[in-house]
Specification:
single chain; alpha/beta; seven-stranded mixed β-sheet; four-stranded parallel β-sheet; 13 helices; 11 strands; 41% helix
Length: 357
């Protein structure tokens, strides 16, 4: 008999349910005697012992369902070693619940922060298998995370819709795409949506270069310009500041987000009519796209295989289209970012896309 604990942690994304379904189906198809303990709302469920027993019925019909049947929450890694408001030692509590339920392993689905805690639990002696989710695609050790492609589709749709209205009105439009630290989503949706300017955190922008690119288009007869701007896009000026200096400067930041600042500066320097659209959390919502359904199911299968083999301490991922196993200690704490000289960036530049650099 296998006793498996499962949780989804961090910001949700598409195909979390598809991935869990994949794990459970692959195990149940090989072994009938399985108990699944679904911890609710991420690590919180494991800390406070909130779980639900799940049967095969719970995993039926969820391949296409967005969100997570277990609920999710953010429990920052840096607070894991700090006692909660009642003095509870969170790590110890997670271990106690694991041992009390006599679990064989934990299946943990999450992004960067989640993986740091998963690795901590591994170091504490628990059996852990993880699956990489996030629309940001910023997990080290895997070419892709599930959720990413679905989010690219949604952000691209947003840019597509803006395209028609931008053309009608001859305006400058900014579509703000999710991603505070990395620009994979903005870069891919920007290229797919035919954005003229793409601003991402990894390539700090110079507002004058942005304005130059807009002016160039106008000179060539294009009446409108579309910018795909990542939530974490940063000016060259700000990129030079230390973390502390930037934090200090941001205290009096008058804009809701960077897109509004870019819009304001463009207006100020050119007099053009500029509008900002923020699709926000729609990018994490809705049905997973077919790619993510297949990908998450494949990852789920491999995670199931690891558990059946009794092999723990791995994240399942993908490299060159093949599903792989990556030791958790290699993944935890590392961020995958867009290299400013990556071929995709060079190719985008060849297409005439400006990065404002
Ligand atoms: O989960 C990743 C992500 O969607 C980022 O792209 C985004 O910056 C952030 O989460 C938003 O977080 P929250 O849902 O907590 O507002």
């Amino acid at each position: 008999m296998k006793r498996i604990g499962m949780l989804t942690s961090g910001g949700d994304c598409q195909a979390l349910n598809a991935a869990m379904r994949g794990v459970v189906k692959s195990i149940m198809n090989a072994e009938q005697d399985v108990e699944i303990y679904g911890f609710l709302d991420g690590y919180k469920g494991l800390i406070y012992g909130n779980f639900r027993m799940l049967t095969s019925h719970d995993f039926s019909g969820i391949l296409t369902k967005g969100g997570t049947i277990l609920g999710s929450s953010r429990t920052p890694f840096k607070l894991m070693r700090e006692p909660d408001e009642n003095g509870l030692d969170k790590v110890e509590a997670m271990k106690q619940n694991y041992y009390k339920l006599k679990l064989d392993c934990l299946v943990i689905l999450g992004g960067n922060g989640t993986h740091k805690t998963a690795n901590l639990l591994r170091e504490e002696g628990l059996n852990v298998v993880t699956l990489p989710k996030t629309i940001d695609n910023d997990l080290w050790g895997t070419d892709m995370t599930f959720g990413f492609q679905s989010a690219v589709d949604i952000a691209t749709d947003a840019i597509d819709c803006i395209h028609t209205t931008a053309a009608s009105h001859g305006r400058v439009f900014i579509v703000e795409v999710m991603g505070h630290k990395v620009g994979f989503l903005t870069l891919n949706a920007g290229i797919a949506g035919g954005a003229d300017i793409i601003l991402i955190p990894e390539i700090p922008y110079d507002i004058d270069k942005v304005v130059e690119a807009i002016d160039e288009r106008h000179k060539r007869g294009s009446k409108f310009t579309i910018l795909a701007v990542a939530e974490g896009a940063i000016s060259k000026e700000n990129a030079k500041l230390s973390k502390k200096e930037l934090k200090e400067k941001m205290k009096n930041y008058p804009y809701p987000s960077v897109s509004y600042e870019v819009a304001d500066k463009i207006k100020e320097k050119t007099g053009y009519d500029v509008r900002v659209t923020v699709p926000g959390h729609t990018q994490r919502g809705g049905t997973p796209c077919p790619y993510d359904r297949v990908f998450a199911s494949r990852l789920g299968s491999e995670a199931g295989k690891l558990i059946l083999e009794g092999q723990y301490g791995f994240m399942v991922g993908i490299k060159n289209r093949e599903i792989i196993r990556v030791p958790l200690e290699e993944v935890a704490g590392k961020l995958k970012t867009v290299a400013p000289d990556a071929s995709i960036v060079q190719e985008a530049k060849m297409l005439g896309i400006s990065f404002g650099d």
